[in-house]
Amino acid sequence: MQGYSDMVAVKIEEGYTPYIISLLYKPLRVPQDWVRGEMERGITEAYKTLLLRVARKPRSPAHRHRLPEWVLVPDWPVAKRAKASLLEVTLNNGLHYQGLALIPPRSRLREPLDEHLATHQALYTRGPVERIHAEPVTHDHRRVVFYLFKSLQRRRADLDSVIILPRPISELEAQPRPATDPWRHPVLIRA
Q1: pTM
Q2: How is the chain split into domains, by residue range?
Q3: Starting at the edge strand that comes first in sequence, how are the strands of the sheet with 163-165 ordered?
Q4: pLDDT per residue over 42-98, tens digit each?
C-alpha cells in the first residue's frame, strides 16, 4: 500500500487531481471464471472513452505524461452505516472495482471528472459497466489509498488483480494485430 500511496503523493505534487472512482456492473451472464475478465473489459472500454477527452494524442510518447492514470482493485461490499441495496450486494456476488483516477494538469477535460462522469454517464456504460462514479479526493490521500485497497490488505484480492492504466507502451505494441487491419498492407495475400 505504501508504494501506491507514495505514487499518488508524487502525482499530486506534479499537479494531478486525484479522484476515487467506482465501477458497478450489469448482471454478467458468463461463467464465474470469466466475470473478472468481463469487468476488466468494461474498465478498459471506459478508460478508452475518457482517454480521448483528456489527451489529444494518447498513443504519442511525447504525450504520455498527459494521460489519465487509473489504479483499480476488485472490491466487495462491507457492512456500513449507509446500507447498500440488496441488488448491489448480490449482483455478481457483490464484486465491483474501485480505486484512484489521476487526471493530469494539462487535460482537455473542461470540467472536474466527477461532474463529467455524472453528465456523460451513457458514454461510459455501453458495455458491462452499469454505473461509473467519481469523487474528488480533498483530504488525506494516504488514508484514502489504504481504504480503497482494503481488499488487498484483507487478502480477498491479490496484486495480480490490480489494474493499472495506461498500460506500458511496450505492452500495447506487443499485442497482435489482425491481418485484415485496413490501415496496413495485408500480411498474407491469397491467390
Answers
A1: 0.79
A2: 2-173
A3: 129-136, 17-25, 96-103, 69-75, 163-165
A4: 999 999 999 989 998 888 888 888 899 999 999 887 655 555 555 555 677 788 899
DSSP per residue, 73-137? EEE-----SSPPPHHHHHGGGG-EEEEEEEE-SS-S--S-HHHHHHHTHHHH-SSSEEEEEEEE-
Q: Is 68 exposed, middle or buried (CB count within 10 Å of its CB: 0-12, 13-18, 19+)?
A: buried
CA angle (61, 64, 69) in 5-degree steps = 150
Written as nine digits, the cell of 51 is 482517454
- Tell me, what's the pLDDT at 137? 94
- C-alpha 138/C-alpha 85 separation (Å) is 27
Give the mean model confidence (pLDDT) for residues 129-145: 91
Q: CATH class for domain 2-173?
A: alpha beta
